[in-house]
């Protein structure tokens, strides 16, 4: 069996909230008891509604946030017990592509400076080598070498995201976390960026965690899909399982929400009720039960165990 590149064990994250003189102290449960494994060369799609904890989990997996509980292992080493220097060296192996291509690039730096910065931080290469590496990075993401002399504001959103990808590739990482990397882009540009991710994975042997609220995007790039709701994983399965039925009711709702390119086909009525509960007040039992069309009394009282229903398919539901 292939050893896991990345493994999270019972990871949780709670954010304490500031309270006034008379207000009661509260805490926000962003991530709760999440465990997952990622093997080399795999793309794991992490999907769920906005505010479900996807980005928080992604940042914990990269040690950009400290978990309240749980452990994260990269190549067998616990990243939260590493020394500061060891963690700095590990940064070469794991990188992130941010959601907003407009705010993730320093507007005061040229593209040459932006792409050379990772090499400077880690003391890699001479000035001539860093220039050659930067030109190669631009070629890998489909941009001309003359872009090095320009500033971020001179590029379109899709081009800026290509630059963000180039920066993430600079240190030849094994793992890239892509946090909603196409949500701020036009649909036609989204397809180009998704194809670029796939091409780079094949060319460079990358491993991805691809975060999105759009299940159609996730299904295009992922080998395996993990669905989150209110900070918990409710289902993980290979991509092909998501077209075969008997999924978690929340996953089925996400699939129904994917638009179909057929104007003559009537939009199906949504089976889901209401809005997601506040993460400040997560309901007892199954957290999805207030909105679930199949909820039964047991769902309101007993939390469903996250268990395998068949090989590689795990689900948190009493009736699946």
Report what the structure shows:
This protein is α/β, with parallel strands linked by helices and 320 residues long. The chain has 9 helices and 12 strands. It has helices spanning 54-61, 84-90, 111-121, 127-140, 157-169, 187-204, 215-221, 249-256, 297-301; strands at 6-17, 26-38, 43-47, 69-74, 77-78, 94-97, 175-179, 207-212, 224-229, 232-238, 306-310, 313-316. It is globular. The model has no long low-confidence stretch (mean pLDDT 89).
* Uncertain runs: none
DSSP summary, beta strand count:
12
User: How far apart are the termini?
Assistant: 27 Å
Helix content: 25-40%
Largest sheet: 8 strands, mixed
Strand order of the largest sheet: 6-7-8-3-9-10-12-11
- From the spread of the alpha carbons, the general shape counts as globular
The share of residues in extended strands comes to 15-25%
SS class: alpha/beta
User: What integer value in Å does the Rg equal?
Assistant: 21 Å
Q: Figure out the total of helices.
A: 9
- Residue-averaged pLDDT, rounded? 89
Order of helices and strands: EEEHEEHEHHHEHEHEEHHEE
């Amino acid at each position: 069996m292939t050893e896991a590149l990345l493994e999270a064990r019972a990871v949780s994250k709670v954010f304490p909230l500031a309270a006034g003189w008379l207000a009661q102290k509260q805490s926000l449960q962003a991530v709760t008891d999440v465990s997952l494994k990622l093997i080399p060369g795999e793309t794991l799609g992490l999907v769920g509604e906005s505010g479900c904890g996807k980005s928080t989990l992604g940042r914990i997996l990269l040690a950009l946030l400290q978990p309240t509980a749980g452990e994260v292992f990269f190549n067998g080493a616990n990243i939260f017990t590493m020394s500061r220097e060891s963690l700095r060296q590990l940064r070469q192996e794991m990188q992130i592509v941010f959601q907003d291509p407009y705010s993730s690039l320093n507007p005061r730096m040229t593209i040459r400076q932006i792409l050379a910065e990772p090499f400077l931080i880690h003391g890699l290469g001479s000035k001539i080598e860093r220039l050659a590496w930067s030109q190669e990075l631009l070629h890998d993401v489909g941009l001309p070498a003359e872009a090095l002399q320009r500033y971020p504001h001179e590029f379109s959103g899709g081009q800026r995201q290509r630059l963000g990808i180039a920066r993430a590739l600079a240190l030849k990482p094994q793992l890239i976390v892509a946090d909603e990397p196409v949500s701020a882009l036009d649909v036609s540009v989204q397809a180009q960026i998704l194809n670029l991710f796939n091409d780079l994975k094949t060319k460079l042997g990358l491993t991805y965690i691809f975060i999105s609220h759009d299940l159609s995007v996730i299904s295009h790039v992922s080998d395996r899909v993990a669905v989150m709701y209110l900070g918990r994983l409710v289902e993980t399965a290979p991509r092909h399982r998501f077209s075969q039925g008997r999924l978690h009711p929340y996953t089925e709702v996400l699939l129904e929400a994917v638009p179909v390119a057929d104007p003559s086909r009537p939009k199906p009525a949504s089976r889901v009720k209401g809005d997601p509960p506040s993460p400040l007040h997560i309901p007892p039992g199954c957290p999805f039960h207030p909105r679930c069309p199949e909820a039964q009394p047991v769902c309101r009282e007993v939390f469903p165990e996250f268990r395998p229903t068949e090989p590689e398919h795990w689900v948190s539901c009493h009736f699946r």
